[in-house]
Amino acid sequence: DGSYFWNGGMFVFRPSTLLGELQIHAPEILQACEAACNAAASDLDFIRLNAEAFAVAPKLSIDYALMEKTDNAAVVPLDAGWNDVGAYNALWDALDKDEGNNASRGDVLFNNCSGTLGIAESRLVCVNGVDDLVVIETHDAVLVSSKDKAQDVKALVDTLKSRKRDEALEHRQGFRPWGVYDCIDKGERFQVKRITVKPGEKLSLQMHHHRAEHWIVVTGTARVRRGDETMLLTENQSTYIPLGEVHQLSNPGKVDLELIEVQSGSYLGEDDIERFEDAYGHRGRHNRQYQ
Questions:
Q1: How far apart, in whole angstroms, are the C-alpha atoms of residue 199 and residue 178?
Q2: What does the CA dihedral 20, 25, 28, 34 come to, rounded to 10 degrees?
Q3: How many Cβ atoms from other residues are within 10 Å of residue 11's Cβ?
């Protein structure tokens, strides 16, 4: 009847107001958030909320938990042609189209296609003779879907989780307080990573039970502690870390340290690590967030 507005999902409030309304309408969420903050750990640019405490919170959006219940709210109409691009077909709507009504981002080649969305993140993607599809290529996986059912990707994610696939938990790139790693190749008994360590930062003093490692410096300077010896490595130099050897990598320089790490062994998971010293306050085994 024209007397309703669509909720754009944008809210403005004072923190004290939000906390007060949570205490009234969703106290379980407030308690879980407080526990996660109280048990948080800080390291450089990151604040790590306690995952176990936060996981206790009911899985409710602010819309359901508060906005449908509060008496302390007002609506401000906005006519801005808004599109939150919340699905792949919405992204297709928002992008420029070619003569076949196809939209793309990245290195995508269409032939005899119409109404199709193509996104390429790391390589050439060729799409031939199809209509109204979504083709998404990333470092981690490739998705091909009909455009009108693209939102059902959630079911695929649930399937990945139920099958305990790593793709549901980790990306090819991993960001850490000390820098970043990128897994560029992987096989049954080997894995190759490109590792970047920020100036002045270091990884934990650690040991692996199932893998050995080769490190080759590409740029910058690496300080390597291996057992009882410490060495400096520069561009094109390398070293070998045997299985079971205590070791540590750090960047004593003023520019990024980039190296190639070749792992080999019977198990190459991120949780094969035992820490003895860690600048970021994490020790012990099987912490997948840190290396």
A1: 9
A2: -10
A3: 12
Fill in the amino acid letter for 228.
Answer: D
Tell whether the model's pLDDT for residue 155 goes beyond 60.
yes
- Number of other residues whose CB lies within 10 A of the CB of residue 169: 11
Longest dimension (CA), the chain: 78
**Residue 27 C-alpha from the chain's centroid:** 30
> Which has the closest alpha carbon to 100: 90, 89, 109, 91?
109
SS3 150: helix
For residues 115 and 96, what is the distance between their CA atoms, to the nearest angstrom?
12
Residue pointed to by tokens 């793709």: 167
Is the pTM above the cut of 0.85?
no
CA nearest 251: which of 221, 227, 277? 221
pLDDT > 70 in the chain, percent: 95
Helix (H) or strand (E) holding 219: strand 211-219
